[in-house]
Specification:
Elements: H1 2-19, H2 21-28, H3 34-59, H4 73-96, H5 99-105, H6 108-119, H7 127-143, H8 155-175, H9 182-203, H10 211-239, H11 241-248, H12 251-263, H13 269-298, E1 304-308, E2 311-315, E3 320-327, E4 330-337, E5 342-348
Helix pairs in contact: 1-10, 1-11, 1-12, 2-10, 2-12, 3-4, 3-9, 3-10, 4-8, 4-9, 5-12, 6-7, 6-8, 7-13, 10-11, 11-13
């Protein structure tokens, strides 16, 4: 029980560390351009995880993980390119609308991920998840218009939705390499996407921030992206993918709370309407995810687990093998039944 409680704490901590990104980024955008912000946030995540991996190696606590190969190169390149565009869009969105709106709109990433998984990767989406997706879309539309009774589209919301679309596609690309080293994936994301954004920043004429603000942005990137992913993976080892993603789903709502506390934001009535819809949709998505995992658990008899790095194998007497692949914002359960040769996929973001 103690181990489960610690894992639950890690999952909620991961959500809180990511949620703090939006309000603090809004503050730091007063001292850096949006593209520069995106660059140093990712560089902070990559550099921080690289130093963390060196400390692990020096202390002998490093877990051996399967490295990336040439076979995964197309997905890796796509991941890097999308991770250049997505945070830039997000920073522009944060600079143009209030951070509480941005935090809630981040839920649209689930919509983008699910639809791309269905259309491109031919995954199955349940009726309950379709309904939750529809609710998120409605709430996002409400948040995208300025003021009660106004039909003026909020440009900041458009940028946030663009970021969600990029991350939705990136989630599906990262999923294809999610059985590899999660630390290596984050280092690659941070290093290459961060430098790509830095080049874009210079091209559009943005100037380097003052050194102390660069250090603040790097630290925020390490905490909100690097450490968040680290604690997410630690939670998954004991909770499993479904339960961890369920706890992590509080991140947008924590972002709203942090926006109220740190920025003293007080959105209008349409925000609270969207908030209620988002809460209902999140509940449905979590329930759907947990229910699917619960169904799978009832199929398993006398399980034995052992781990190879990030890859956890569960062997049953029925010869059903459950493989858990983890990464960042995205996680997936694969269940392969040898006797039926069926492939059941559960995807949550």
């Amino acid at each position: 029980m103690k181990t489960k409680n610690i894992a639950t704490f890690y999952a909620i901590l991961a959500a809180a560390l990511y949620a703090i990104n939006v309000p603090l980024s809004k503050v730091l955008l007063n001292h850096a351009g949006p593209t520069m912000m995106a660059s140093f946030l990712y560089l902070g995540a990559g550099l921080g995880l690289f130093i963390y991996s060196l400390i692990e190696r020096a202390t002998g606590k490093q877990v051996k993980r399967e490295p990336l190969t040439k076979k995964e190169l197309p997905y890796t390149i796509a991941m890097v390119v999308l991770d250049i565009a997505a945070p830039i869009f997000l920073m522009f969105g944060i600079s143009m609308t209030n951070s509480a709106n941005v935090s809630l709109l981040n839920n649209f990433e689930i919509v983008a991920t699910s639809i791309i998984a269905l259309v491109v990767f031919k995954e199955t989406v349940s009726k309950k998840l379709w309904f939750a997706i529809a609710l998120v879309t409605v709430a996002s539309a409400i948040l995208s218009f300025e003021g009660a009774g106004s039909f003026t589209f909020n440009g900041g919301s458009l940028f946030v939705l663009g970021a969600c679309l990029c991350w939705g596609l990136e989630n599906n690309c990262t999923k294809m390499i999610s059985n590899k080293s999660s630390v290596e994936i984050v280092i690659i994301k941070g290093t290459f996407s961060g430098h790509g954004s830095l080049i874009c920043a210079f091209i559009v004429g943005e100037h380097l921030p003052v050194v102390q603000w660069i250090l603040c942005i790097l630290l925020l990137g390490f905490v909100a992206y690097g450490l968040s992913i680290h604690f997410y993976i630690m939670a998954q080892k004991d909770l499993g993918a479904a339960k961890t993603s369920a706890y992590y789903s509080v991140a947008p709502f924590l972002g709203v709370v942090f926006s109220f506390i740190f920025l003293n934001e007080r959105p209008g009535v349409q925000f609270y309407i969207a908030l209620i819809i988002m809460v209902i949709s999140t509940y449905l998505m979590v329930k759907d995810t947990i229910a699917l995992q619960h169904t799978h658990e009832h199929e398993h008899i006398h399980t034995h687990e052992h781990a190879h790095g990030d890859l956890i194998h569960t062997h049953e007497h029925k010869h059903i093998h459950t493989h858990l692949h983890t990464h960042g914002r995205d996680s997936e359960n694969h269940t392969h039944k040898h006797e039926l040769t069926e492939h059941c996929h559960s995807h949550s973001s």
